[in-house]
Write a structure and sequence with these properties.
The chain is mainly alpha-helical. The protein has a domain at 95-307: MetI-like (MetI-like fold, Orthogonal Bundle), CATH 1.10.3720.10. Helix content is 68%, strand content 0%. Helix 5 (122-134) packs antiparallel against helix 9. The longest helix is centred in the N-terminal third of the chain and has 34 residues, at 22-55. The chain starts with 5 loop residues before the first helix and ends in a 10-residue tail after the last helix.
Length: 317
């Protein structure tokens, strides 16, 4: 009988593959399934972000890519001295101040109506409020363009039937902003459903206790419902703030890229698009993109810093 040397037996044991634990196998498979997204994010998002930051300090143009030079903060100085950019920024901020209360407040009111115990056929109304959200943006813009037409639009015809003198919504610098706010109501369906779901999650015991204390429906809404749905209000506020700073498709299609009348619909992102892709000044365009990103980031940080004073979380945080 031949005996195996102990040293050979030890080496054979150490050469055997180590068996992975269940947690390690799950982790490997997790990274495997995440890898397509991670690769896509790195190639199509992270790298372009870094490159655009580099471009903001250069004079890079698509027509002369071989003549790129680093020019420091010249593009940033040009931005703050550019009257078109500053006017477009003012239009964007003004529209945001006009539209933000509507974009946040109307979904709350509609959700409260849909949550009312006196409303019949609730599923039908929920579907009707959500359906416009499914309509492609371009199609919705053309529908509203016909609806708000100063001469043949249905809205103005209705107002004239009541003896009113309606404005020329899309050709008047005073009224094109409110007209786009009306158009934004077309897409509140998603916010309405999220708010409605949160309202339905408010414990009924709180309303029962408020009735015992003599509170009416209005008091219960402001003292119970609004505080309990404040995280969703905060969520919609953040999304709408960022979205309004990126406002582009509606005014671009509505005015065919002109920003008429008198630049009242010439938003910052329209100026960015024209600079980068029509005039091919990618360096200056990247600067404007980073400026609006930093502005959105700053506003988001401010909103998060104030949220602890008015946003209520059931966990006490």
């Amino acid at each position: 009988m031949t005996t195996v040397p102990s040293s050979l037996s030890l080496n054979t044991t150490t050469m055997l593959p180590r068996k992975l634990s269940t947690l390690q196998r799950q982790r490997r498979w997790g990274w495997f399934f995440l890898s397509p997204w991670l690769i896509g994010f790195f190639v199509f998002t992270f790298v372009p972000i870094v490159v655009s930051l580099f471009f903001s300090f250069t004079n890079f143009t698509l027509s002369k890519p071989d003549q790129i030079q680093i020019i420091g903060f010249a593009n940033w100085q040009k931005l703050f001295a550019d009257p078109l950019a500053m006017n477009a920024l003012g239009v964007t901020i003004g529209f945001a101040l006009l539209s933000l209360p509507v974009a946040v407040g109307v979904p709350i009111l509609v959700a409260a109506l849909l949550n009312s115990k006196f409303l019949i056929a609730k599923p039908v109304f929920r579907l009707l409020f959500y359906l416009p959200y499914m309509v492609p943006a371009i199609s919705g813009i053309f529908v509203w363009q016909a609806f708000l037409n100063g001469q043949t639009g249905w809205l103005n015809r209705l107002l004239r039937s009541f003896g009113l003198n309606p404005p020329n919504w899309l050709q008047d610098a005073t009224w094109i902003g409110p007209a786009m706010v009306l158009m934004s109501l077309w897409g509140i369906g998603n916010a309405v459903l999220i708010t409605l779901a949160t309202m339905q999650g408010v414990p009924q015991e709180l309303y029962d206790a408020s009735k015992v204390d003599g509170a009416n429906a209005t008091t219960a809404f402001f003292k119970i419902t609004l505080p309990m749905i404040s995280p969703v209000i905060f969520y919609n506020l953040i999304l709408n703030t960022i979205g309004l700073l990126q406002f582009f498709i509606v005014p671009y299609v509505l005015t065919e890229g002109t920003g008429r009348p008198n630049g009242a619909a010439y938003f910052f992102n329209m100026h960015l698009y024209k600079t980068a892709f029509l005039f091919q000044d990618m360096g200056y365009g990247a600067t404007m993109a980073w400026f609006i990103f930093l502005m959105a980031l700053g506003l988001t940080i401010i909103l998060f810093s104030t949220s602890r004073r008015w946003v209520y979380y059931a966990g006490g945080e």
